[in-house]
Each structure stands twice: as C-alpha cells, then as structure tokens.
Amino acid sequence: MLKNRLGRAILIGIASLVLLTIGAATATATVAKLMTLDRLVDRSDRIVHATVKSQKSQFDKKYNLVTTRTTLDVSETYWGSDKKTIVIEQFGGEANGIKTIIAGDAKFTAGEEVILFLKDAKDKSGLNYLTAMAQSKYTVQKQADGTELIWRDLEGLTFQIPNSAGKNSLQHVSEAPQPRTSFIPEMKAQIKRIKGGSK
Question: Which residues of the chain have pLDDT under 50?
Fold first, then answer.
C-alpha cells in the first residue's frame, strides 16, 4: 500500500507541473482522461451523497508533502457498504508553514453538499480516496426556487480528447449543471447496469 501511494504521489506531482499555454494565458494543469459518469461508476468502490464536516492537513514525512483528510457525514449510499461517516485523504493542503498544491484535485469546504465517487483503501485504515481527482466530486446546490442543481468543477484539469484525425489533443472541458431530478436517476441506472444492483 505504501509503495502504491508513493507512486501515486510521484505521478500526481509530475502531472501537476505540466505547463499548458492556451491563447495568451498560461496555466498549470493536470492532464487526464475525461471520466464520464459510466466510467466513474465502473471504477468506484463507493458512491455517496454527503456533507463536508471538517478538514485537517498535516505534513507527511513519508511523502515529504502535505496531506489533507476531509471528514464527511453520509446521508445516502448509492453503492458500497453503509457508513455514516467517511474520511477522504488527498495529497495537498497547508500545514506547518508548508503548502502543497495539486492542480486538478477536488477542493472541499465545510457545509458543502456533494456526491462522491470513491475508492476504498486496501489496508485497514478505513480511508477513502477520490476515484479521479476533481472529476469524482459533484457539488449539489439548492436554488432560490427550491430546485437542486448538480455540477462538477473541472478547473485545473486538461483532457486528452481524440480529434478528427484520431489523435489526442489537449482541451479544457466545462460542463453545464444538471437538475438533480435527471442526474440521480441516470446515475442509479448506470449503477444498476454496470454494478448489477443498487449497492
């Protein structure tokens, strides 16, 4: 597990240093494959609707960088074993005067309502990890009229998109918010099709 996480840290660190120039603007981004909803469902061990409770960052001497653990209260589990509380670990954060930034990873704020696609830790820590960085986090926002919109922030990510010549080109992608009334049924249908059930 240590070897796998260290390898993941190195890969993320290298990816986050890729510099991309788009027009006159220069930005730091992580290059990734676009994860559609069905891919997220297929690759995730756990899919939940949760609210962010708290965060804690610490400098991890094993990786020589800052890691952050986010605690969330689960209101509904769409796939995976039921847990009232989950803790997600990510590389990045600020502690002891040291700041580590991972471009393209999800950011969380206390009180935020989210739908998450997660991988379970292979050891006995009970931790979870985002299946595909920021692509794994959908924010749920209530509107003034009482309706709810679901969307994900893909800032900091650049995607390999096949062009007409069959070669990959690097592109930024933005997605329009979706009504909860359409997103949740689609997600549940994908879970049933891919996983063979509701949990």
Answer: 1-27
Separation between Cα atoms, residue 134 and residue 40, nearest integer Å: 12
Amino acid, single-letter form, for residue 170: L
Give the C-alpha separation, 68 to 83, whole Å.
20
Q: How far apart are CA 175 and CA 143, in angstroms?
A: 18
The Cα 56–Cα 141 span in angstroms is 24
What is the reported pLDDT for 164?
A: 76
Taking the C-alpha atoms of residue 126 and residue 122, their distance in angstroms, rounded to an integer, is: 9
Q: How far apart are the first and last CA of the chain?
A: 26
165: three-class secondary structure by DSSP: coil
The sign of the dihedral angle between the CA atoms of 162, 152, 94, 88 is negative
DSSP assignment letter at 7:
H
Query: For the whole model, what pTM was predicted?
Result: 0.83
Instruction: Read off the tokens for 198.
Output: 């509701």
